[in-house]
Design a protein that fits this description.
This protein is an alpha/beta fold and 201 residues long. The protein is built from eight helices and six strands. The strands form two sheets. A four-stranded parallel beta sheet has the order 4-3-5-6. Bound molecules: zinc ion (ZN). Residues 60, 62-63, 65, 71-72, 74-75 line the site of zinc ion.
């Protein structure tokens, strides 16, 4: 049996930290030690923040975003354009687009992408509520901001078919050369997508 170097409370802290994405056992141990050393300035506020998150954060009933208010801050912001719904797979994608600050629209979080191999079907995602939101006369465009993967594109096609009856234009993100990218380093799929989506200067 391996020798234990810390009491059960510390071991438990390390085990829980190691479940966080991006933290292996080694960095979890380092993070635990840091928290213990910074008990007053860091661990106590972190505990309070975690408790507040448990108590207050919920899933927005309109768009699927997470927030401490429901409907969420994005859905209730009167300065946002109500005619555009940006559809994303996950809240992380919503946050990424918000960081880019190029859109002033509302969102719809699907909760994943269709994936027959993983057993994810249409009923596992919030596709139905997207379709009903798209039928609101105030909505004119649905942007499908989904991953450029097989599952992401399958989901985009599936949703596009369902939105044929809605009076909205359905658009998707361009595929192509990343900003700062060098052609020589791109794979053939990206290059051919970039050629197909070329735009006039
Ligand atoms: Zn919302």
């Amino acid at each position: 049996m391996p020798r234990s170097t810390a009491g059960p409370e510390i071991e438990r802290l390390i085990q829980l930290l190691a479940r966080l994405p991006g933290l292996g056992p080694r960095s979890a141990r380092r993070a635990a030690l840091h928290l213990i050393k910074k008990r007053e300035p860091l661990m106590a506020p972190l505990t309070a923040a975690l408790q507040a998150a448990i108590d207050k954060i919920e899933v927005c009933k309109t768009c699927g975003n997470i927030d401490s208010q429901n409907p969420c801050t994005v859905c209730t912001d009167p300065r946002r354009d109500p005619s555009v719904i940006v559809t994303v797979a996950d809240v992380a994608d919503l946050w990424a687009l918000e960081r880019a600050a190029v859109l002033n629209a509302r969102y719809h979080v699907l909760g994943g992408t269709l994936s027959p191999l993983d057993g994810v079907g249409p009923d596992d995602l919030t596709i139905d509520s997207l379709v009903s939101r798209a039928h609101d006369p105030a909505v004119t465009e649905v942007i499908l901001a989904l991953n450029a993967t097989v599952d992401g594109q399958t989901t985009a096609h599936y949703i596009t078919d369902l939105l044929r009856d809605a009076n909205v234009s359905v658009t998707r993100l361009a595929h192509g050369v990343p900003v700062g990218g060098e052609l020589d380093y791109l794979d053939e799929g990206t290059l051919s997508a970039a050629i197909r989506s070329r735009t006039p200067l």
